[in-house]
C-alpha cells in the first residue's frame, strides 16, 4: 500500500525514477529531493520472474534511492556534542542519535533532555534510534522534540504498527529496527506502516564492533520485499559501517548508512562522510 504522499518533499527520495545515481544538493538540508536512484544487483534467485539463475550474479530491475549517510554521535566526544555535530553539518544527511537505557541493551547513553538541547544546536535532521524497553511510552516524546525519524526495536514492542501510527501522528517518520539475532521475515508485512527499516549489522549496544556480513541477507530480503511491493521505505544499516564495508551493504540494497567510528574516529569527520557516501554511490551506480 502506498502512503505518505508528502514523502518526496519531507526528506525521502522516491524509488524508481531513473537508473542514474544522483545526489540532490538539497539533501544537505535534510530534504533529499526527488531525482535519481541507483540499481542494485541482487543474488541469483532473488529476482521475481527474471534473470539467469545459473549466473553468480546479475542485475534485477531493482532501484533504490540515492544513498544517505547518518553519522552516529555515539562515537563523538560527549563533552563537546554540539561541536561534534557541527563538524558534520554540510556533509551528513541525518544525525544518528543512539538512545540506550541499560535495559534493552547493556549500555546507557543519552535521553530526551540531551536530544532537546541538541535539537536547538543544529539544523540536521535527527535519526533517533531507541534501544530501549517500553518504546510506546517514550518514543512519541522524541517526535515531539523534533526528531525527524524515530526508530524503535521490534524486539521491544508488542504492537509496532500502533507505535508507528503514534509517531506519524506526532509528526515524525517511523522506523523499525531489527537486532542481530532477530529474523526479518515476521516483520516484512508490517513495512507499509514504516518509513525506515534499520537492520543491525552488529549486536545492538556498543559502537566500534566488527561488521557482520552475513546479516546482509536480511537487507537483501528487505530490498526484494520493498521492490516487489513498491514500498517507499529507506533500508538503513547500522554497525561497523566503514570504507571497507559500506559498498557490500549498498550492493545488498541498503540506502541509508549509520557510521560512528568511521566518521568520528577520522581526522576530518565531514570528509569521512563524503567518502562513505561516494563509496555507496559507486557500489550501486555501476550495477
Ligand atoms: O547502534 C549502534 C550501536 O548499537 C551504533 O549506531 C553503531 O554501533 C554505530 O557505531 P559504529 O559505526 O562505530 O559501529
TrEMBL record:
A divalent metal cation binds at residues 96, 98, 129, 238. The keyword Transmembrane does not apply. Keywords: Carbohydrate metabolism, Isomerase, Metal-binding. Its EC number is 5.1.3.1. It comes from the Bacteria. It is an enzyme of class 5 (isomerase). One of its GO terms (molecular function) is metal ion binding. Catalyzes the reversible epimerization of D-ribulose 5-phosphate to D-xylulose 5-phosphate. NCBIfam families: PRK05581.1-4, rpe. This is Ribulose-phosphate 3-epimerase. It comes from Micromonospora avicenniae. The lineage of its organism: Bacteria, Bacillati, Actinomycetota, Actinomycetes, Micromonosporales. The gene is rpe.
